[in-house]
Amino acid sequence: MHRNGGRSPFGARKRTGLVKRVLTGGIAGLAAGSCALLLLVAGSQAVGLAPGPADKSFSKSDTVGPSQEVLRLVGMDRRRALHILRKLPDPVSACLPLASGNRDNATRQELGQLLEILSKSATARILLRVATARNALLCLDHATDRFAYYYAHMRLIGVNARINEGRRIAFLAHELAHVPQHPAYSDNRHFPPQDLVLLRRVREAAAEAQATQILWELRQAGYHHAWDAKLNTIYRDIARAYEAKVGEDGSREGQLAAARASFDQWFMKQRRLELYDGMTVDHLRRISEDDMGLVPPARFLSHGFLRAIGWTGQGNYLSHREDLDLTTGFYRMQMSVTNAARLAEIMRAHPSLASSENGPARRYPLGPL
Ligand SMILES: [Zn+2]
To answer: Residue 252 C-alpha to ligand 1 middle, in angstroms?
Structure first.
């Protein structure tokens, strides 16, 4: 939506300061499957979750086709149904279509209870309206090795069935925050690789900031289990940064400043940067080998474009601290030695990219943190 005059992910018109070249990238640049936003690959090991089954690239459903029941679940979109069936063998039993609200089996009732808890937060209610308008599916996943996930191209939100309610809410809030980020902030191969690294960092930091805001609102409404659960994850520093700031000023403005503090805190942990940068490098390696491959950069991130991701429907927490440019310094800090080496290897295989006039090396030198 930002491509068309800077609408916010919620549809409200915002001044984003888009530069003209940002408008030049088209939908063709969106890489299929690139929107999967996965949480806590490392964290899942920390709590001893057993790995789930390997991703099947082909299943029986691909040949026999999805059933009418599955098709109805996804608005008769056959392609979407096939993608979802590769992740979940029985989406009819495991998923609640947010748009229908049917609670006609035990799993849907369980998922409905999560939604009722989330609805105590004004910020979550806005996100749920967006997800409902997009006919997103909310699913309880018994096999995944992640706490939660959101696949934007399938509009599929999954929550691990083996974690307790507080954790489910904590991770679901994060994944819900990803929903309005797409497609405006999806990975797009018309960005230079280093912009894609920054874009994922900003998406994740923004989802964490908004999730923390939701958990704070739930705590204020008397539901503290999700906040407490977050304090037992590798994201506890983000919750603490929020709490320290909101303690100074609990007003609406104070909450926006606290969300900004959470956003900034996301960038403070080297291990976190390494983990998510590594996902971007994985993504770049995948698309470098597909039919379109890597293309010379035609779009570049701007501060105004990135700032609009901080719009929550009630204000923009990234409008605090306007002195910090989201495209530079602190946010754009260099990658780990390992990730930089892996990215350099991909770039070496595509010399036309590195030598292009808009080559990423000019804007963002590769190197260790
Ligand atoms: Zn995420």
So the answer is: 25
Report the distance separating Cα 246 and Cα 326, nearest Å. Answer: 22
How far does residue 283's CA lie from ligand 1's centre (Å)? Answer: 15
Tallying the residues shown for the chain, one arrives at: 369
Q: In the chain, pLDDT over 70 holds for what percent of residues?
A: 78
Work out whether strand 95-97 and strand 36-38 pair parallel, antiparallel, or are unpaired: unpaired
Q: How far is the CA of 333 from the centre of ligand 1 (A)?
A: 19
Tell me what pLDDT residue 62 has: 54
- For residue 206, report the distance from its CA to the centre of ligand 1, in Å: 9
> Up-side HSE of residue 34: CA atoms within 13 Å toward CB?
28
Residue 148 has pLDDT above 50, yes or no: yes
**Ligand 1 centroid from CA 175, angstroms:** 6
Name the CA radius of gyration of the chain, rounded.
20
Between the CA of 29 and the centroid of ligand 1 the distance, in Å, is 21
pLDDT at 77: 93
Looking at residue 189, its amino acid is: R
Alpha carbon of 355 to ligand 1 centroid (Å): 33
CA of 201 from ligand 1 middle (Å) equals 9
Distance 65 CA to ligand 1 centre (A): 31
Q: For the segment 46-60, what is each residue's pLDDT rounded down to a tens digit?
A: 222 333 333 444 455
Read off the pLDDT band of 123 (50, 70, 90).
Answer: very high
| Gap between the Cα atoms of 25 and 294, Å rounded | 14
Q: Tell me, in angstroms, the distance from the centre of ligand 1 to residue 122's CA.
A: 20
- The reported pLDDT for the residue numbered 349 is 86
pTM: 0.82
Q: How many CB atoms lie within 10 A of CB 59?
A: 13
Please give the mean pLDDT across all residues of the chain. Answer: 82
